[in-house]
Amino acid sequence: MFATPGACIASGRFSRDGCKNAFANSQVELREKVQSFATRRKCQSKYRLCEKDAEEAYRPTLLGVEIAVGGREPSATPILAVETPPRMFAALPISRAIEPAKPVSEGFAPIGPVGRFRAKAERAAEVSHSRDEAIVDVDASAMRAPAPPMTRESSAERRRRLRAAPFVE
Description:
The chain is α+β, with helices and mostly antiparallel strands. Helices cover 31% and strands 12% of the residues. It has helices spanning 5-11, 16-33, 40-47, 120-129, 155-164, and strands at 50-52, 58-60, 62-68, 75-80, 92-93. The longest helix is centred in the first third of the chain and has 18 residues, at 16-33. It starts with a helix and ends in a 5-residue tail after the last helix.
């Protein structure tokens, strides 16, 4: 667990970019998953420890970032100064910066362009005539990487693990 990107870099365990990405991704996760408040008082009534972010909103204080090494690559999870439900935050990879999700209204086109999709029966006839043209099957399920096995961690176990974790300032 690291309190700052500088502490992460100084540890020598992760690259400079990895440490910066860990904190940037945690900030994105915090902004997307935690309610913001217009005043410090409202935030403190729910979370007690709050700070103003870059968007001029109040959110719970970010104590640091937990970087877990396991699986394919190291991943980071934000640690707040308040109790959070298990799996509230996704463990995001530190190898790349995650962009904030765009609101649905930005770039939303409810109707696709004409001729973009074709019926399966039409495609079956076309496939037999021409193999050079790539045809996309819109009904086929997307290929996904296998999900890592889920482990159940109780709130008490998580609290014990975080209290025992080394904290670098």
